[in-house]
Amino acid sequence: MARDMSDKDIMKMELEQLQKEVNTPRTAMSTTAPELVSFIEAQSAEDPLIKGVPEDKNPFKEKGGCVIT
Fold first, then answer.
1. Which of 44, 63, 45 shows the shortest CA–CA distance to 55?
2. Which GO terms label this protein's molecular function in UniProt (predicted)?
3. How far is Cα of residue 11 from the mean position of the Cα atoms in its chain?
C-alpha cells in the first residue's frame, strides 16, 4: 500500500496519525497502576494460566498413549 503512495501522501497520513495521538486523553501511571493491580488480582482466580486447566476440561490433553508391541 505504501509503495503506491507518494512521499507527500505518506507524510500526510503520519501527520494525521500524530494529531490523533496528541488528542488521546492520558491518565497518570500513579492513578492507573493501582487500578490495574486490583483488576489483575480480582481476575486471577479464573485465569487458567495461573491456576491451570483441569485435566477433564483440557482440549489439548493426549487422548491415548502410544502402544508398541
1. 63
2. G-protein beta-subunit binding
3. 29
20-44 residue pLDDT tens? 999 999 999 999 999 999 999 999 8
HSE value, Cβ hemisphere, 13 Å, CA-based, for 2? 6
**What are the φ/ψ torsions at residue 68 (nearest 5 degrees)?**
-115, 125
pLDDT band at 4 (very low <50, low <70, confident <90, very high): confident
Distance (Å, rounded) from C-alpha 30 to C-alpha 28? 5
Residue 33 sits in which domain range?
A: 7-45
61: its cell numbers: 490433553
Instruction: Please indicate, yes or no, if residue 51 is contained in any of the structural domains.
Output: no
Q: If you search the block for the grid coordinates 498413549, which residue do you land on? A: 65
Structural domains in the chain (count): 1
Please state the length of the chain. 69
